[in-house]
Structures are given as C-alpha cells and as structure tokens.
Amino acid sequence: MMTLKPSIHVISQASISENIRAVRWIPGRASFIGVGCTVQGVGAAQIWRMRESQIKSSHSLPVSRPLTSAAMLASSGDSHHVVLGDSQGGVEVWDLVEARPQPISVLGGTNQSAIHALDTCGGCSGEPGPPEVVSGAADGRVLVWDARQPERPVAQLCGGTSAAAWAVALGGAGTEQDRSVLAGRQDGTISLWDLRVGTLLWSGSMEGQGVCGLAFDRRGIVMNKAYAAGMGGRLATINLRPCQPDHGRAMEVQQARLDSVLWGVAPLPQNREVLAVHAGDGSLSVHAYHYADSRHEVGGMEQLSHAQVAQQGIPSFDWHPQREGLWVAAAYDQQLRIGCVTGLRRL
Questions:
Q1: Each residue of 136-190: pLDDT tens digit?
Q2: What's the chain's Rg over C-alpha atoms?
Q3: Which terminus of the chain is less hemmed in, N or C, by CB atoms within 10 Å?
Q4: What pTM was computed for the model?
Q5: Pick from 129, 183, 188, 138: nearest CA to 159
Q6: What residues contact 13, with CB distance under 8 A and at least 6 apart?
C-alpha cells in the first residue's frame, strides 16, 4: 500500500514595501509579527492578521533602528512579548498587545555589532526554568540573559573563535535547572554549552560551511538531538543524547541542496521528528528523521516534500505553535506568505 506524503500549499500571500528579516507567530492567535527595515533603512516591526484567508496589516511598533531578528518570549495571561534584535547590537523586549511608545525592557550589556540571531526558552508550560534569551552577534559574542533581570547578561559564551555567530538555540530544559545553548558560526563551527555550569560540552563543524540556522528538536526536554542548516546546501543532525566516555556526540552532515544556501530549519512543534527547511532559492522542503539502531549513532534524514513557494530566498519561516501544519514565511521578493502542510498526521 502506497503511503501518501505531506503536501506543501500556499494559502495566501501579500506584497509589502518592507524588507522583512524575521517572522514569528503570536501564540494562540491568527496573527504574526514581521521585522526588518524600510527601503529608507528605518526599522520596521509590523503585526499582521489572517482574516478570511487574507493577510491584513494590524499595527506596528515604534522602532527606529533596522531589525535583524525576533523571538517570542514566554508571557503570562493575555500578554504577548517579543524580543527584537537590531543592526546596532540592541536587544529589546516589546509588548505586542498593549500599545506602548517604548519597549518593556532593554537587555543590558549588549553587543556593539549587529545581532544575527535570537532564541528563547523557559517560563512557560512545557519549558521548565526561568525565561531566558540568547543572542548571537557579528562580533562573535553569544550572550544569555534572564529576562526577569535584564540589566546584564547571566553568561557570555566563547567557542574558541571570533567568527560571527549566525545562529543560536536554547534548549535541554529537562528540569528547572538544566539549560543548554547551541551556537553556529560563519566559519562552520557549532558549539554546545551547559549553561548551568558554563562549560563547553562539544564542538563540531559543518565542513567549513557557515551555519545559518540551528534548532533543538524540542526545547523543554533532556537534550536529544538538534538540527543545523547552512551554506553550500548543508543540512546536519546532531545526536545530543548523554554520551558515555568512549562515545562522543555525533553529527551527520548531508548535501540537501546542490546550488543553494539553507537559511534555516524548523522542527514541527507537534512532532519533533518532522522539520521544515527554507532555502535561498525560494524553496521549502519537509523532512523526517529516522533513528539509528544505536543510541550513540545519528539516524537518517528523508525528504518527504519539496515546493517552490517564492521567487527569491526565504530568510525566515515559522510553524504555528498550536495549529499543526500552518506556517508563515518571509522572502526577499518582498512577499509574505501563509501556507499549510497537509498529511502530517499520517507520519
């Protein structure tokens, strides 16, 4: 009997005047935020809503500096907070519900160079521990903050290289105390830290190709595995399970594309073995991970579906945290797209 594979669909798209670098769904809503800059180089942070299968502009945040990255921060009640990174090294927390003329907080001790990546973890159901933020910057610094104490970072991590930190991820939150950080750099190195004790646990390389995207398969569990995407069409899986002295952590790098950069990788919130990969050629693909027989080895990756959804590269993609298969993406053709992947529940 033939098994039907997932199918990628575009539901709606909208032309915009801004250059959007990052998009993130607002949890529990049919709304998302897109951040970047205008053609005049002014910062842009716009909230859009999905209404009757159309993308409609809602309101904007009064930012000034060009924005480069965004991550949703755990919030309580009906509030929704987003962390924004800009081209001058600033990292700020904004309220998406209440109209405020300024950010809720500014994370102190930030970089003096552009923020390339942000991630958050903790402070909500399924992610134990305090709400924390990690940033990766052009000067190579990787900083971690406790969002409740924004005055200064709680950790500054060094991977033995000053190459720009293009990608970061927070995860490994199996308990209230456990937390791990992954950082990927322009020179292709990937580093893993235990944030609780501040030690470097492991480092690897994407065969000299810059790392553009990183993600734990799930943040709120004991470390299991992570995915990495990068230059030269490289896609990697990292086995993060606790290793014995004679077994190091393993990474498997494969050539997922021959002629395009992979901008990022996004595990499906409802199934950590399924992930989306968005690429510089405007394509979107869905892959499935299959475990190896040995817990010390890396399993295999299978491409399930592939579609050309944009005319230019897709720098940002996000799965909706509650609605399985619903996604939003921003492309360099100045189009926002909302779509869905059907057939995921058969996997």
A1: 999 999 999 999 999 999 999 975 568 999 999 999 998 888 999 999 999 999 9
A2: 19
A3: N
A4: 0.94
A5: 183
A6: 55, 335, 336, 337, 338
